[in-house]
Amino acid sequence: MDAAALQTFTSPVVLFFVLGLFAAFARSDLAIPEALAKGMSLYLMAAIGLKGGVAVSKSGLDSTIGLALLAGIAASFLMPLIAFAVLKGFGKLDRLNSGAVAAHYGSVSVVTFVTAVEIYEAQSMPPGGFMVAVMAAMETPAILTGLLLARSAASGEKRPAGEMFHEVFFNASVVLLLGAFAIGAVSGASGFEDVSPFFEAGFKGVLCLFLLDMGLIAARRIMDAKSLTWRLAVIAIAIPLLNGVIGTFAGAAIGLDVGSTAALGVLCGSASYIAVPAAMRLALPEADAGIYLTMSLSITFPFNILINIGLIGALANALVGPGGMML
Question: Is this prediction's pTM over 0.85?
Answer without folding.
Answer: no
